[in-house]
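To assess whether ligand presence alters the predicted conformation, the chain was also submitted together with zinc ion. Input:
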Amino acid sequence: MKNKLLFLPVLLLLLAPAGLRAQAGSLIPVKIYISSHDDVYKFKGLGVGVEELRNGYIEARVFEAKYKELQALGWKVEKVMPVPGDEKIVTAYHNYSWLTAKLDSVHAGYPLITRKISIGQTVEGREMWAFLVTDHPDSAENEAEIRFAATIHGNEPVGTELCIAMIDSLTQAYGSVPEIADLVNNREIWFLPLYNPDGNALGNVNNARYNAFGIDLNRNFPVPDGSAGDDGTYDIEPENQNFIGWTSANHFVLGCMYHGGALVANYHWDYSDSLSNDLPDHHLIREVSLGYARLNNPMYNETSDYNYDGQSDSGVVFGYYWYPVLGSLQDWSYHTSAAIDLTLEIGYSKWPNASNLPNYWSDNRQSMLFLIRQAGLGIQGLVTDSATGLPLDFARVEVAGIDKPVYTDSIGDYHRMLLSGNYDLTFSKAGYFPKTVTGVRVNYDSLTSLDVALARDLGVAGGEPSELIWQKDRLLNNVPNPFRVQTAIDYQVLSPGMVSLRIYNAAGQLVKTLDEGNQIPGTHSIKWDGRDDSGHAVSNGVYVYRLQAGGVKQTGKMIVLR
Ligand SMILES: [Zn+2]
């Protein structure tokens, strides 16, 4: 949990009549099919709250009696059935060495659909284990990557058990449950079950929250606005450096980190109250958070504690409105890698008695499956070189109106969740002509595939089509190019450090210093409005931009054409 005093609400919750909560918990999620849009106005009179309008149906939650009443009235109503599978019973907490042995044993049992790696070592030299469940775990495929992580606060270990239980559930049901096999075959499902093993090794004490240097790892990430985290430093702890390096090499679509001490799905931003302006995917992010909460009855029914200024309901909350945090993992994740990353607070007790673990598992299992499913929906495809057919890594995929590009992975695949709608997508990469595809229909709850081939632009410098793995700081491209009003120059840095990005005219004179100073790791998109350092619009022509970072100098060319 975010380290905050919530004694009063917790007390009130404990005093809440048990019957009220039990009754609320018996609501059944249903789909009610509609024949025309006008039907949505009928539900108010039927006493049914419309939670979501989908393609041809609404989502709602009703009691059994209402479900039968709707059927009797002739509505086609379906209960949203849980995905079947092994209902695993979890009864004890895994410490670091037990977790290590457990992951080894699952891999030994299911070598064809699992892989265990270390993303690096902690301060005290423990490995940070990451565990992958997918078909063909040793090769990259055109599949969306999702990541579950837990116990960044060492004294909040329930999420570790959820990760282990889901690993067991997926592997054991793979051969017999088609829904599970479909997810395993078409997603790359990563788990980072024990983020802070050093803290966790101290047991159920307050200090276990921190890493071995006494730092709160969830206050130590680079803040999107470049300021220092709540820990007051720009030094990134070894655990977070490992995570940043690993995440930079895997384009996660969706992730979450489990916490304890509260009961709410907390979403970006934590650092800023700028919601719609500065959080391009705000509606989508809220929708994904709601999706998790809706399938977790205790979370969905919990509203009282977080309902500040009407900014929270149905078990979800916009982070900053709950309380501001600088340096959280979720903010870093979305800002630099475009991964939607939720902070999931799954219970009021940080370290509940192990006998309660089966309840946590049953409260969260369907929600976890929801995240896995959702990560692979929206739009995906391959970006290739039109002449060679080779995949293009780190090609930029931008959705018009949503200022948050995603990039292709090592085999040229991209994945992006979107709310239902028609979108214009622009694909680009340095050294290639950009291509825009207009009017692409994308649905939140299904998958659109769109492959794109880009043609080499031999007149523009900078393409590296054969380089498949990003290992150093680099300049990507600028879009659009040529440009009239504004262009965005993208670059990536792997570790924190000094960066400068400058623009020169064809005569080699400095025109504009766009970015200079300490930069945080990740992908950055710097906009240039075609004005020089004194604010005057530059004349038409060719300009060179130069990135200097980590001892590497790279240049690209662009054209101003008004
Ligand atoms: Zn926490």
